[in-house]
Amino acid sequence: MRAVFAGGGTTGHISPMLATAAALKVLDPTGEIDCVGTSRGLETELVPQAGYRLHLVDPIPLPRKLTGQLVSLPFRIIGSVRQAKAVLRQTEAEVVLGFGGYAALPVYLAARQLRLPVVIHEANAVPGLANRIAARFAKAVCVTFAATGFPRQIVTGMPMRAAIAGLDRSERRDQARLQFGLAPSDKVLLVSGGSLGARSLNTATIAALGAFDEAGISVLHVTGKANFDDPVQLPELHQARYIRVPYVEEMESAYAAADLMLARSGAATVSETALIGLPAIYVPLPHGNGEQAKNASAVVAAGAGQLIDDSELTGGRLAEMVTGLFGEPGELARMSQAARDLMPADAAQQVARQAWQLRRVP
After folding, report:
1. CATH 3.40.50.2000 is held by the domain 167-339
2. Per-residue pLDDT reduced to its tens digit, 44-64
3. For a tag site, which of 66, 115, 161, 346 has the least CB within 10 Å?
4. Which residues contact 78 (CB under 8 A, 6 or more apart)?
5. 322-345 burial by CB neighbour count: b if 16+ within 10 A, else e?
6. Topology of 2-162+345-358 in CATH?
7. Based on the number of CB atoms within 10 Å of its own CB, is 42 exposed (0-12), middle (13-18) or buried (19 or more)?
């Protein structure tokens, strides 16, 4: 099998792409996998690290909404489509798998011109423009959330790395806590705003440390590399620990160490915390098209998480929410159980099987 994967820009596109590629290699160990991205995104680092060939096309920034900007889009995209067609011919592709992002649309259009089957995966509850266009002619439209609402959609969940999809938090908890300098008996709040960090989450966490200390709640704070050196005034702690790190390469270790998480509600974070049963307080990005609030809606509705607007996230409000959850006997365990049935663990395998079944056999 010869498959070409298209997607990139952020880890939100790249992580499910690489997880599906790994699942496809299990399904067909002798298969050939190539990836298409742009020079702007993290794929320039992550795809080669994962062992796949990366081909670059010119980036085409797409408007999030169907506006007048689309009038000029065909003229800007012609060169990228030509580049994508060259890649598909060179690799002798039998199927294209797309995950959105700047590189996806040229590859989708090139595949259509070459009459290659297209399988897409949309991570967010509010789909991006590239996938909205491709959904009209794709042979399979896979989505993380049922609320995405594509016609003919297949709800697969979010493709994840095997280390997360198969994570047993309780089994790994003690080892993970020792890894970060936490005690096995600690009550642990994990704070992370994603790979780039989130200043509002960081600021509120620092402001709430005194209240966390009084309640005996330790904090594992993943600040993001860009924010790690921000000047902070830390209170003196007596009953709890505060561990500050810029980035965690293997996020499954941080998940295993935690009892509760404070996070943005990107599709990957929502999906991963739900699957592994980690209760979370979600703080959607205050800008964009509202996708992050919708990503978390099903988890919140099931009672497996809580939602707070970024504008309302103060140290006092955060302290109230976190101490309230830790202070209510059995509440975190109840939330954890409620989360477990919300997200399939085999999403990567489901998407890979779609590609395998739909490929154009020579």
Report:
1. yes
2. 999 999 999 999 999 876 665
3. 115
4. none
5. bbebbeeeeebeebbebbeebbbb
6. Rossmann fold (3.40.50)
7. middle
